[in-house]
Amino acid sequence: MIKQLMKCIREYKLPTVLTPLFIIMEVVMEVVIPLLMANLIDFGIDEGNMNYILKMGFALVVSCIISLAFGTLSGRYASIASAGFAKNVRHDMFYNVQNFSFANIDKFSASSIVTRLTTDVTNIQNAYQMVIRIAVRAPIMAVFALVMAFGINKKLSLVFLATIPILLVGLLFIMKHAFPIFERVFKTYDKMNMIVQENLRGIRVVKSFVREDHEEKKFRNISETIYKDVSKAEKLLAGTMPLMQLCMYICMLLISWFGARLIVGSEMTTGQLMSLMTYTMQILSSLMMVSMIFVMITMSRASAERICEVLTEESTIHNSPNPEFEISDGSIVFDNVNFSYVNDENKCCLKNVNIEIKSGETVGIIGGTGSSKTSFVQLIPRLYDVMSGSVRVGGKDVRDYDIKTLRDNVAMVLQKNVLFSGTIKENLRWGNENATDEEIVRVCRLAQADEFVNSFPDGYDTYIEQGGTNVSGGQKQRLCIARALLKKPKILILDDSTSAVDTKTDALIKTALRTEIPDTTKIIIAQRISSVEEADKIIVMDNGRIDAVGTHQELIKSNAIYKEVYNSQNKGGELA
After folding, report:
1. What is the Cα–Cα distance from 442 to 482, expressed in whole angstroms?
2. Phi, psi at residue 496, to the nearest 5°?
3. What pTM was estimated for this model as a whole?
4. Which residue, of 12, 454, 461, 498, has the greatest Cβ tally within 10 A?
5. How far is CA 188 from CA 226, 241, 372, in A?
6. Mean pLDDT across 336-340
7. pLDDT reported for residue 574
8. Backbone dihedral angles phi then psi of residue 457, each to the nearest 5 degrees
9. CA–CA dist 478, 497 (Å, integer)
C-alpha cells in the first residue's frame, strides 16, 4: 500500500526531502535555546555579569530567528509536497477509472469512487503532510531533548523512561480499537453519497410524488449512523490528550520535587533545572505529537486502503497483445454467446445467443422489460465481455480489435442519454472533435434536431446545463443521436433512444438513417412496433434468449410474443 502511494510523489520529491531537512535544523536550534538560557541564568544573572547576559541574549535572539526561518520553510515545502501528492493521487485514480470497464464501475459504484476521490484523498493529504513534518520533528525532538536532559542530570532524566512506556501502551490500545470504526465510517460515507446523488438526480420525481419526508428520513438515518460511529471513534481518540497530560504532569512533578532537592544539595544549578523543565516540555510535547500522528494514521489508513483499491484495480477488458486496427465492415455475428454480469454460468442474462447481421442491415430488437436487449448490444463495443462464445464484427472477434478502434466504429446511443455542460457544438463534437460546422448541421438534420436548435437564440452555441436540464427529453435524445452520427460509424446502436419523440419525428429519423447512411449497420431497440416494423429483420428477445427472428410480416404470423405486443399497441385491431 505504501509503495503504491509513494509512486504518486513524483515531481514533488524535492519538497518532500527538503521538509524534513528544515525540520531537523529547526529542532537543533530549539534544543540549543534551553542550553543558552541555562548559561544565561547560571553565568550571567547569578554572577551579575552584564556582558555575558548581553552576549547570551543576542545568541538567543539569533537562535530564535533561525529556528523561525527553518520552521517557516519546512511548513511551506510541506504544503507544496502534500498538495502535490494529493493532486497526483487524484490524477492517477481518475486516470485509472477512465480505463475501467462497466464491470469495474459496477464493482465500486459511482458514489464510492466520488468519496475516494474527495474525502479519502483529503485524509491522506493531511496524513502525508503530518508524516513528512510532524513525524520527523516529534521523534528527533524527543531524542535530542532526551540526550540533552541526560547530559544535564542522568538520574533525574530516568523519570522519562518510567512514563514513556505508559503513554505508548495507551496509544496502541486506542489505535487498535479506533481503526475498525473509521473503516466502517468511510463505507457509510459511500452510502450517504449514493443517497444524495439519487435525490439530486431524481429531485423532480421526489417533488412530483411529494416524497421529501421519505428522502429526509433516509438521509437522517444514514447521517445518524455516521454520527454514532464518528462519536464513538472520537471518544476513543479523545483519550490521547488526558493520557498525554497525565504523563506530562507526572514528569514535571517528579522533576520539580527531585530537582529542588538536588539544588538544595548543590548537585544542580537553577539554570540547569529550568533547562531540564524545558526539555521535559519538549519531550512530552513531542510524544503528544506522536499521539496526533497515531490518530491521523488511524483515520487515513482506511482511506489509503480504499484509494489503493482503485489505483490497483485492473480493467476486466484488455487489448489483445497484437490488436487489429482496421474493421472491414459492419457485419455482426453472435456465436453461441452466454453472458453474466457476475460471471456465473447459473446467473446468465444472455443464453445461447446465435444471430448473424449483415453489414448495412437495419435490425430491430423487441422484447419485454428484463429480456436483456441492452445487455445484447453492449457486447458489440465490448462494454462488457462475453462469458463464453464469441461476438464477431467485420468477421473478427471483438476481443481481437484495439478497443479504441472498435468503439470508434460502433456508435451507441444509450437508454440514459447524457449531455455535458457546454454548448451544443461542444457536446456534438464528442462524436468527432474535428467536425466542421457543416458536418454538425448535417447530422442534426438527420437526427431531426436542426429545427429546434435554430429556434434557440444562440443556435448551436446555446449553453447546455449539466445533465441537459434546459432541453426536453426528446431534444436530448435527438442531440445524442446526432453526436453518435458524427463518428461516422460502421455500426449504429439506438437503445430505445427515440422513446421521447413523437411518432412522426421517429419515422423521419428512421427514414433519414436508411437513406443517408445505407452502408452503416443499424440496430434499433424499441418498445414501439412502429419504430422497427420496416427493419430488414427483427429480433424478438425473451428472458435472455432469442425467441424469433424475421420481418414484421413474418413475425406477425408466426411469433406469439411479437403478435401480442402488436395487438396491445394497436388496441386489438385487425392484423395486417
Report:
1. 9
2. 50, 40
3. 0.69
4. 498
5. 7, 28, 32
6. 93
7. 46
8. -55, -40
9. 8
Lowest mean pLDDT among 3-12, 130-139, 296-305, 491-500: 296-305
Quote the percentage of the chain above a pLDDT of 90: 29
- CA separation, residue 483 to residues 148, 412, 476 (Å): 73, 10, 11
Q: Which helix (H) or strand (E) holds 462?
A: none
Find the length of the chain: 576
> How large is the angle between the packed helices 270-312 and 154-201, nearest 10 degrees?
30
Would you say residue 405 has pLDDT above 70?
yes
Q: Give the C-alpha distances (Å, rounded to integers) separating 151 from 82, 147, 283.
A: 37, 6, 14
Cβ-contact 67, 30 below 8 angstroms: yes
What share of the chain has pLDDT > 70, as a percent? 98
Enumerate the β-bridge partners of residue 410.
491
**At 202, is the secondary structure helix, strand, or coil?**
coil
Signed CA dihedral, 39, 43, 48, 51: sign only: negative
For residues 165 and 163, give the distance between their C-alpha atoms in angstroms, rounded to a whole number: 6
Inform me whether the pLDDT recorded for 80 exceeds 70: yes
Judge whether residue 138 has pLDDT over 50.
Answer: yes
Q: What's the farthest any 2 CA atoms get from each other in the chain? A: 121
Q: Give the amino acid at 535.
A: A
How far, in whole angstroms, is CA 391 from its chain's centroid?
32
Phi, psi (rounded to 5 degrees) for 356: -125, 130
